[in-house]
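Worked example 2:
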Amino acid sequence: MTGIKFRIYYEDTDCGGVVYYANYLKFCERARSELFFQKGLSPHNNDEFFVVKNVNADYIKSAVFGDLIEVNTKLIEKKSASIVMYQEILRDGELLFKGTFKLAFLKNFKPSKIPQEFFEIFN
């Protein structure tokens, strides 16, 4: 599993200093994008890109302002035009969130075969 660390800023929280639920999805999206950036690639290439088709999210504990979290990502299924990824968010090894994300690959806004070099990013 590949891990990316993020600090929780005030903008990520509600008025009580607790991370707003939708931001966990944003943290996962940032971590997936970072996988591409670390390989010198972009998750959006001209008319080719991934879109989220399905999310199954499980919120376990809250992150709060100032926390350092780690988002781990693992490819669990690959097909010719879609992938399924498992992502989890931890704080000091404690599980806060976990989810599976089905991503479809589009070219010119139509489902398309995922280029082989993209599969290598997730290994």
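The chain has a mean pLDDT of 93. The longest strand covers residues 94-107.
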